[in-house]
Amino acid sequence: MAKALMDLHDVELAALAAAGGRREFGELVRRHGSAVRALLRRMGAQGAEADDVAQDAFLQAFEKCAEFRGEGTFAAWVKRIAARLYLKRKAKDARYVAELGTEEIAPMIDTPGRVDLDEALKALNETERLCVSLCHGAGLSHPEIATAMNLPLGTVKSHVKRGLDKLRARLSPDAAQSGRAAHVV
Known about the structure:
Elements: H1 2-7, H2 10-18, H3 22-43, H4 47-63, H5 74-96, E1 114-115, H6 117-122, H7 126-137, H8 142-149, H9 153-171, H10 175-178, E2 183-184
Parallel strand pairs: 1-2
Helix pairs in contact: 2-3, 3-4, 3-5, 3-7, 4-5, 7-9, 8-9
């Protein structure tokens, strides 16, 4: 039975899960769980929080599995759910938690020419990191991000561009002088 599940496409698994197939949905979680948690960590969620939001996203995806039409990938669909849940959680937390001061950013270059993308993302301010992660990690469009974050569209576009510019500068600090870019790990 496990071999048969591994052979099925995500669209087939989602259709079977929509009909109540828990094993089929379990296969979807196995396939895409780590990618969803990685996106949430890049958005700023710490380990346990990323796990909690990912679990909530998969529970919501299971409940709404019949809505998945296969027009995009299942991974992108569940990442959008997770990203929106994380944004809701951040908005709720913001009402109760005072803004903390900025922490010093750890060095991002471990060895010459190697850069950690996760560390580079930490160098962005929270809004830039969220906008870049939602756009390039979760695959949301600028209008979708604007709606989810309750920001004007132009502001979202500015945050994405500014964040990408900062990442380019961080990920290839010597590119302008030596003509070579850093290798991302």
